[in-house]
Amino acid sequence: MNDIKNINLIRLAGLLLIIVTAISCKRDNNYTGHGYFMDMAYSQAFETYGSSPNFSDSITMLTPVEGTVPREMIPYQYEKTFDEQQRAGRELVNPFEADKENISRGKEQFSIYCAICHGEKGKGDGHLFTSKLFTAKPTSLVEDYVQNKPDGEIFHVITMGSISTLMGAHGSQISRDDRWKIILYLRNGLK
Q: Crossing angle, helix 151-160 and helix 176-188, to 10 degrees?
């Protein structure tokens, strides 16, 4: 008798498990299921320029304290003028050695950011020019015009863009260290 009771209990438990599973499954892919601690899953963010009850003046986007600089950011102290470009050439010195690792990193970054205009060999024959998407021929980086410039001047042109050509500023896209490594590649890897 006990064996029959146990078998019936097992069958009942199995049937309940099947029913619960069938009820809990929905065929709607948009239903994500039940959530717990909804305040963590769907946080209540404030809009950038919206009001906030957390501050006495209700402003969420506060300006930084005057004179502060974000961590690891050194403001670039040269302006986009020809005189400042030459001053950068006199004052800025490449902090990296021309070793295999730095030149390799410079080549990698050159391929990403520079080759599209200047070409893989730096001769000004990149895809944008050869495909006629860009009508002005970019400067050749292997000729004396660029190779005779100090590293700081080339760094300035990469950072701020050129005064005399159509090259735009890349300082916001390429990290400071990678700009210096690109210059190492220009000096040692393109030849």
A: 130
